[in-house]
# Entry
Amino acid sequence: MQAVNSHTLRWMLVVFILFPILILLGAFMRSVQGGHLVEMEGWFYPVMTLHGVGMVGVWYVASMAITADLLSRLVEPSAKVASFAIWGTVIGVVLLLLSVFAGRFAGGWYFLYPLPYKGEWPAWSATLFLVSLGVLGAAWLVWTLDLLRAIASRWSLSQALGWHYIAGRSEPAVPPSVTIITVGLIAGVAALVSAVILLALFFLEVFAGLANDPLLMKNLTFFFGHTIINLAMYLGVGAAYEILPHYAGRPWKNNRIVALAWNCVLLIVLLAYFHHLYMDFVQPGPLQYLGQIASYASAVPSSVVTLFGALLLVFHARMRWNLSSILLFLGLAGWAIGGIGALIDSTISVNLRLHNTLWVPAHFHTYNLAGLAFLVLAYFHHVCQDATGLPENALLQRVSALTMTLGAYGVFLMFYLAGAYSIPRRFAIYPAELSHGIGYAHWGMLFALLFLAGFVLYLAETGRRWWRAIAT
Ligand code: HEM
Ligand SMILES: [Cu+2]
# Structure
């Protein structure tokens, strides 16, 4: 048995509280779209904004929390910085809630310039929203830098990135999770710095009257947004490399191919975001083609290597299936399935049709909810089980995983079908021409509640262990 880091336990509490609330906000949106709560239409966009930023934020910090937990077993991240990150996050979230509930800010999760200061909400709520993101971004940047510092105190950068494996040497041994985490954290620094620049430009306009260039603002926004959500996924995958071997009873070692694939990600991930700007005719043409190529090149090698690695690890192994290993496996599958949905949409000729339809939420919900969230929940269960050693309830664990999976894939299916039938995203109410969107929304809401039921069962099993771990 190994005690759990107290910071990890605190982050788990944050997820256990915020995730169900944010799911309910998702179900609320589907109810409005399904024609059940039409009189609440005015709340749709503030709720959409809070749900989007909230979910992205929760799963980003959760992926950072499991990364910090994993690293604390190998190197020494600073405890002070860890507390600072928690407090920075709490303050940022309080400001965010004020901006959405008191100010009804509704600029969407990526607050695309110049919308924040053009809406029906008061200007102060937009400013508060941007300040809240500034606080969160600053706290997370410091956290990221400290984790990189901790890695650097044991391995040089080239070792952490596994370059010696690429050169054909296998010493010193560096766990594959460390290579993936290093890639993710470096991308994180780039993303957070671009967020800081973006916010500074917003504030220069608000307080000094300097006009901004919308194209530059959009590039900065998606450089930040695309990168942050992708790297959260990578951190989750890094954790899978670390814990899946415990259940397969075999090691998952770093090697030339693993290192090559993840260095490929580092090289290319920063260029893939161009796929968010296909509709911007003023964006230079070559960047659009680069966007399509980079989207494929950043996704394919890392996922193929990971999925083959995972399958080889499990193949003919004496697998011990419990909540953690089931969710790890499902999580890697969700990553791949959502990734295929994403690649389809990043193909320019297809994007022409699918742009801003519900196909977009369809694919990113797939790899976030059935990918990243499952991987993180698997890790949480793993450490709590390790710390308490309570007897596992196999039936409860299976029913929980199955219910969450059915609920999640139901939610996605309704999004994919609606997207394929041209229902646009971000419509609170569907007009007569889009009335076929109402049925999908109704079913989407029911599947969301099914997912929530599965998560409650998860809490019954893992939450109990968390409680025991925090009490001792
Ligand atoms: C059961 C769980 C969930 C449900 C029912 C749900 C539902 C929804 C709905 C209905 C929308 C609005 C779609 C539209 O444009 O019409 C939405 C948007 C969004 N959701 Fe979720 N969601 C869930 C989980 C997640 C998770 C895990 C993430 C993690 C990142 C997430 C991130 C987002 C984002 C970023 C948006 C876009 C907001 C915007 O357009 O500004 N959601 N979700
Ligand atoms: Cu993207």
Q: What stands out?
A: The radius of gyration is 22 Å. The pocket of copper (II) ion (ligand 2) is lined by residues 226, 273, 275-276 (CB under 6 Å).
